[in-house]
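Recall that a protein's primary structure is simply its ordered list of amino acids. Everything else, from secondary elements to tertiary packing, is in principle encoded there. The following example makes that idea concrete.
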Amino acid sequence: LQLVESGGGLVQPGGSLRLSCAASGFTLDYYAIGWFRQAPGKEREAVSCISSTGGSAQYSDSVKGRFTISRDNAEKTVNLQMNSLKPEDTGVYYCVVVAPNGWRTIQAMCVMSDSSSWGQGTQVTVSS
């Protein structure tokens, strides 16, 4: 299950970006989706995940209150609205299908599905 990310770019600290995730060859509606990021020299980490219905979502502590994940059924996308961006938000952002084994923590919710794969990602750079 391959997803395509878009919307990255260069933004100043305090600015905003909106990332979008679209499906390639399948319907996004039935799947829980997660956003992950990888900063230079660091391991990939989960940022936020949303259930297939949009009724449940989790965020990492580092982005809670600043980022919002949502589903756009009309556009068939899962979006990540990123506000109050910080230099430490810099990295490549990926979206993948996740297979949650729980809904109460990001660790339980953001479990990458065996049938999903990493795409190209979209680069987010926060710098003045």
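Helices lie at 106-109. The CA atoms of residues 88 and 126 lie 8 Å apart.
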